[in-house]
Amino acid sequence: MHAGNEAVDLEFIVQDVKEGEKLELRLWLRMLSTTKLVSQEIRRRLRSEFGATLPQFDILAQLYRERDGLRLGELSKRTMVTNGNVTGLVERLEADGLIVRETPDGDRRVTVAKLTPRGQEHFSAMAAAHESWLRDLMTDVDAKAIRLLLSNVSDIKKSVTRHLTEGATEPN
Amino acid sequence: MHAGNEAVDLEFIVQDVKEGEKLELRLWLRMLSTTKLVSQEIRRRLRSEFGATLPQFDILAQLYRERDGLRLGELSKRTMVTNGNVTGLVERLEADGLIVRETPDGDRRVTVAKLTPRGQEHFSAMAAAHESWLRDLMTDVDAKAIRLLLSNVSDIKKSVTRHLTEGATEPN
DNA sequence: TATTGTTATACTCTATAACTATA
DNA sequence: TATAGTTATAGAGTATAACAATA
Questions:
Q1: What is the pLDDT of residue B166?
Q2: D10 C1' – A37 CA distance, angstroms?
Q3: Theoretical Cys-Cys bridge with A159: which of B104, B117, B120, B140, CB 3.0 to 4.6 Å?
Q4: Taking all residues of chain B, what is their mean pLDDT, rounded to a whole number?
Q5: What is the pLDDT of residue B6?
Q6: β-sheet with A99-102: strand ranges across
Q7: Interatomic separation, CA of residue A8 and C1' of nucleotide D13, rounded (Å)
């Protein structure tokens, strides 16, 4: 796919320099395609085996770890889904009987969503399957690399978050 | 949020073991949330500054690097978008005057999509902006970590791909 | 007035399957 | 018969903004 042998060394150098200038871009594209690959598979399985979508799974996961439930605004922040769209997601999950909405005494503007017993059971099964899918898909990656990735991906997230929040609040 | 001090050590150990058993899951969740964070920002900027979506950007990027264009089936594979949906994406881009569809002589079933001159110009500007957004967002991550991530994320992708293709073809 | 959610809207993406034209 | 694309359909997600109820 590349040019003849005579030019290999030069090409290699040139390519290396070029790549060195776009490390962030290359990493992003690689993360994006990898995430897309895995997401599509996970979404497919969630739908066929549990009739759920990824955003729904995300909502349930948040509520599963908060037995007392979460206010919709908080749910919105944690899932990075806008308020208006959280309403729609929560409505579908409520229609499925997996969660309920309650208005606590004291502040009637507030709505708290929490899992029903059936929702807990259902999510528990989903989470177990989900975890085993991932273990299976990543089985060739050694634990050391995963630990490293965990920390490095966190660093990326921190960097991005910092730049986004700074940009929003107009820093010094 | 956690129990009293007496139980701390035990809890710590238990949690460590638990986490040790779910490294893949934790990594996936972290990658997913990071990707979502970045994607939302990139999508927002692509839309507001270029009136484009991420899947559209992806299509254009593929065509940009193949001056002679690509058959829609190939485009479908590379972007991980189904044939039918590629048709829709390509139609919108053609309506915007960024690409054209042509049927080569020889096999009239085939459709090749390629960038128009205007599409090349437009994408060139998008790609430059895109690259600088990412450099900016990831600016706090050092080059060494990025190089490491590049290789490790590749390993993940390979592992996932292997397991998906094996599963599909029923291996030995 | 500010906050919490809801409603409304318009688009795009996604998945699946049936279908047409060509080979 | 197999292949390349298209069409059709249904359902969700996403972003934005206007709105109602409550504080």
A1: 80
A2: 24
A3: B140
A4: 88
A5: 35
A6: A70-71, A112-115, A99-102
A7: 47
The H or E element containing residue B113 is strand B112-115
Residue whose entry in the numeric block shows the structure tokens 């776009």: A22
User: Tens digit of pLDDT for each residue in B138-161?
Assistant: 999 999 999 999 999 999 999 999
Handedness of CA B37, B40, B42, B48 (dihedral sign): negative
Tell me whether B124 touches chain A (CB under 8 Å): no
Q: Where are the alpha helices (DSSP H) in chain A?
A: 8-21, 23-50, 54-64, 72-79, 83-95, 117-137, 143-169
Q: Model confidence over A12-52: pLDDT tens digits? A: 444 445 555 799 999 999 999 999 999 999 999 999 999 99
pLDDT of A143 > 70? The answer is yes
| Every domain of chain A and the residues it spans | 7-51, 52-132
Q: Residue A106, class by beta-carbon neighbours within 10 Å (0-12 exposed, 13-18 middle, 19+ buried)? A: exposed
- Check if B139 contacts A (Cβ < 8 Å): yes
Strand D nucleotides within a 7 Å radius of protein CB atoms: 3-9, 12-18, 21-23
- Per-window interface: B 79-98 vs A, CB < 8 A: 80
According to CATH, what is the number of the domain B52-132?
1.10.10.10
- Digit-coded pLDDT (tens) for A103-118: 999 999 999 999 999 9
How far is it, in rounded angstroms, from Cα B140 to Cα B66? 33
Q: B27–A143: do the CB atoms touch at under 8 Å?
A: no
> Which tokens in the block code for residue A135?
């273990």
Query: Cα–Cα distance between B160 and B31 in angstroms, integer?
Result: 14
Instruction: Say whether the CB atom of B90 is under 7 angstroms from strand C.
Output: no
Phi, psi of B107, deg, nearest 5: -140, 100
SS (H, E, C) A78-119: HHCCCHHHHHHHHHHHHHCCCEEEECCCCCCCCCEEEECHHH
Distance CA A25, CA B143 (A): 12
- Residue of chain B nearest A38, judged by CA positions: B160
